[in-house]
Design brief:
Strand content: 15-25%
Order of helices and strands: EHEHEEEEHHH
Oligomer: single chain
Largest sheet: 4 strands, mixed
């Protein structure tokens, strides 16, 4: 099981807030990502991911503090199991393993969406998937790693978009039965 906690949704328009069912879809997608690209995490009873939506000024402060970069960014990830740049989760099984925090700036996501000609929801999904991949050890600090991470990011973001579109249209999804 992947539990996704989202805080700060008051910074999002109500139409972009994820329902409880949509959070479960997000968790189901993350569980599949783990089984496909981070199987070392499947031995735990479950994992927990925290997503925090922050206002622009707060994100700018965090970006300056942790990356020495001026101004806000769209997403930052704070993995709990990174050691000297390497993903190193505990090998002993935990009942629920916290993976870390994903911090999102809605205003920056909105600007990025406009710049890329996509909807806010599409960009929001992309940054959440991007942040999650960082939590499970992916990075884009070399061209090769960037190509691999971008490929995974695009694949899983597109899958999540389809799941959410089906959910919002009321169409049942046979892949989530029993997820």
């Amino acid at each position: 099981m992947v539990r996704v906690e989202i805080a700060g949704e008051e910074h999002l328009s109500s139409r972009y807030r994820l329902s409880e069912n949509e959070r479960e879809l997000l968790g189901a997608l993350f569980r599949r990502v783990i089984s496909e690209v981070a199987p070392q995490l499947t031995g735990h009873g479950g994992v927990e991911v925290s997503v925090n939506i922050l206002p622009e000024a707060e994100m700018a402060e965090i970006n300056l503090q942790y990356r020495s970069e001026e101004g806000p960014t769209d997403v930052l990830s704070f993995p709990f199991w990174e050691d000297s740049g390497d993903f190193s989760p505990p090998s002993q099984a935990w009942p629920e393993l916290p993976l870390g925090d994903i911090v999102v700036c809605a205003e920056q996501v909105e600007r990025n969406a406009a710049d890329h000609g996509v909807s806010f929801l599409d960009e929001y999904i992309l940054v959440i998937v991007h942040g999650f991949l960082h939590l499970i050890g992916f990075d884009h600090d070399t061209e090769e790693k960037e190509r691999h991470m971008w490929s995974l990011q695009e694949r899983y973001a597109n899958e999540l978009k389809l799941l959410l579109e089906k959910n919002r249209s009321g169409e049942p999804d046979p892949h989530t039965k029993g997820a």
